[in-house]
Structures are given as C-alpha cells and as structure tokens.
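Hi everyone,

Forwarding the result from last night's run.
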Amino acid sequence: MSTHKKRRLRTRSARSRKAPAQWHATPLKGSFMAASILGILITLYLVYPANPSYGVAFLVVFGAMFVASLVSMTKAPVVD
C-alpha cells in the first residue's frame, strides 16, 4: 500500500470519530434489576458469610448493576 493511500485512510478515520453530542441513558429490561436484587440477596446470605472478600466484590458488582438500573429507569426516554 502506498504512503498516499495510508495517509488518506488515516485522515478519514480520524474525521469519522466524533464524540456523541449528548449522553443518553439506555432503557434496560426489568430482569436486569431483578437479577441485581437477587444477586445482592444471595451474596448477603450465602457468599459473604463463607468468604468476606468475595462477598464484598460481588456486592460491589451487583450494587453497580442496581444503580445502573435505577439510572435507566429515571433517565431513559419513554419507548412506545
């Protein structure tokens, strides 16, 4: 490939990468929230008493899932 073609491809790909104009929340399914709540409960009753370090790690993951589902409920656009 010639250097001219490489340079043209490089400039075209640099122009095509644009940042989104505004942040939009994605609507998540209700099962996502149910999975996060179920994961928190299972972690609290089964995992955390057996191994606290894994319990805390799982609580962080499922807590982040729960927060994401709450943000999705409040900020996502209404879908017809």
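Helices lie at 3-16, 30-50, 52-75.

Cheers,
N.
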